[in-house]
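Much of what follows relies on a compact textual record of a protein's fold. Here is one such record, which you should read through line by line:
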Amino acid sequence: MRILLIEDDTILGAAVRDQIAADGYSVDWVGRLDAAGDALATTVYDLLLLDLMLPDGRGIPFLKMLRGRGDVTPVIILTALDQVSDRIEGLNAGADDYLVKPFDLAELSARIGSVARRYTGNPNPIIRHGPLEIDLAARSVMKDGKKIVLTAREWVLFEAFLQRPGQLLSKAQLEERLYSFDTEIDSNAIEVHVSRLRKKLGAAVIETERGLGYRLGRP
């Protein structure tokens, strides 16, 4: 997934950014609502992590504005506001989840995965694809009863195909899911990751449409 983190606390923001990156996702981090608006105007995100108290305004009106214009991007609120009324306000404004600071970073990762599964229409964390048994929550793959070890980037790439079975994904779309704005990307990075996935999971797991992109192979 490509995630936009909207958080002005530099220590917490850096910790969350590093956690997301360690999970293999790409993350863009901004500390103001106006910068968040600029990012959303130019980039499609799979998830927003939204603080409620920003230097240039509150997150709730920003969230209501997004929902009001039809933006259905999943949103997880990250805030120190812990009253029940605050949670109700956030959820009623259109948030998908609400996490109170301080929180455990592993819990944040779990909540990101849970929200992502709901939006892709498959809340069940266990799916099967041919000889593969995939646990989306544990981020693990079994093939013929044996565990296959994937790197964080390999997992995120494979997850992108699982979330869009049969859909052709271009190289540019895959790069957006794997890398943030300030990352230098090797020209053959996607080809390398796809090749490694095929070696680990099977040559037919990902199909190539030459010059167009890649899709999940048939089970």
The first helix runs from residue 10 to 22. The chain is about 40% helix and 25% strand. The longest strand covers residues 2-6.
